Request: fold
Amino acid sequence: MAIRTAAEYISQLTALLPQGPAWDLEGAPELVVVLTGIAQEMARLDARAFALNSEMDPAHVFELVPEWEAVMGLPDDCLGSSPAFADRQLGVQQRLLAIGSQHVSYFIAIARGQGYPNASVTQHRAPRFGRARMGKSHFGTWQAQFMWTLNTGGRQSLGRRFGVSHWGQRFGANPGSALECIIRRYAPAHTIVNINYK
Reply:
């Protein structure tokens, strides 16, 4: 979609003027003022139409973030009551393009998206005859077959550092409430999830 400038609209409007002395720009300077005002408004409308066209794509959404959030059930309760605007934009994009799964790689991707690049999953298995080895299995209940642990792999990559942070930011904090909320929401209903922050 081409965006025309006010100068382009003035030349176009001037070319479309009817013939005759009443429409002579040298004889009627007021006409130039009127055409300039109309051209500026038409250029503004062109720019707004282009912006609206961009707002339809969640990858470029800026002004219509609240409307997209209302349609998609955002902002996410797991991310807190007042996320940053960039996080809200990213939330709209991710919610629209998200494809759920019950595979281990899906939950690792969620953890990486929350800032844990070294995340891994440990699946626990209940000991069964023919499969269990002496001293290997620590889970002796039937429910152990439905347990799994998300290992975050240490601190978030977005942590604060001395000399880079500003006054009021916490050092050494490992905020995992958003991660726990999201993982427990998408975990299969019959499973028990443990999150290991080490």
